[in-house]
Amino acid sequence: ELKVEQNPLFLSMQEGKNYTIYCNYSTTSDRLYWYRQDPGKSLESLFVLLSNGAVKQEGRLMASLDTKARLSTLHITAAVHDLSATYFCAVVPNTGNQFYFGTGTSLTVIP
Amino acid sequence: DAGITQSPRYKITETGRQVTLMCHQTWSHSYMFWYRQDLGHGLRLIYYSAAADITDKGEVPDGYVVSRSKTENFPLTLESATRSQTSVYFCASSDPGLVAGELFFGEGSRLTVL
Known about the structure:
The complex is a heterodimer.
Chain A: E1 4-7, E2 10-14, E3 19-25, E4 31-37, E5 43-49, E6 55-58, E7 61-66, E8 71-76, E9 85-92, E10 100-101, E11 105-110
Chain B: E1 4-7, E2 10-13, E3 19-25, E4 31-38, E5 42-51, E6 54-57, E7 64-66, E8 76-78, E9 87-94, E10 104-105, E11 109-113
Parallel strand pairs in B: 2-11
Antiparallel strand pairs in B: 1-3, 3-8, 4-5, 4-9, 5-6, 7-8, 9-10, 9-11
């Protein structure tokens, strides 16, 4: 059974602090995606990581992929309240085109 | 409107009734997916389709039926709704032939089964 595990599941952090969300998966994959979901809303694509060592940055968020370790990280730098949301990683196995999602990390940034 | 649209956005029904959730995309993406989202479970794949007339089961297909007679439409039917099917349902599409191949989501359909 393919597993995608995110941790932490819940994260409360103060504005200005740094933190990292981890996404571990159990299959061979070169395709990993990060999504953001605001309460009551749909999922919005944040990052697309398509190879080992891929790194993408957008504002205070940076995502990376290590396919050998089957690990992706989402690093938050100097958090601001607007980053409060739930973040999901999703993996696509090399053998197919289905997207498997982690359980999500609910981030709350406290002023 | 361009994109992926779901209807209805909100639905309340009773146990045993048949319900169909509609999904329409304008990108001509080959793949379409149905997920359900429940607290503590993240998103779980119900069914997906690689092309018109090709569908396959995901992780939690029991109690659901899908069809895809046209590339742009992918309806999800609950043949006899149960309370455990109360959830938010998301339709999504992707095209693996594109460089990014990412998944694009509809706005979701919130279903309550009484």
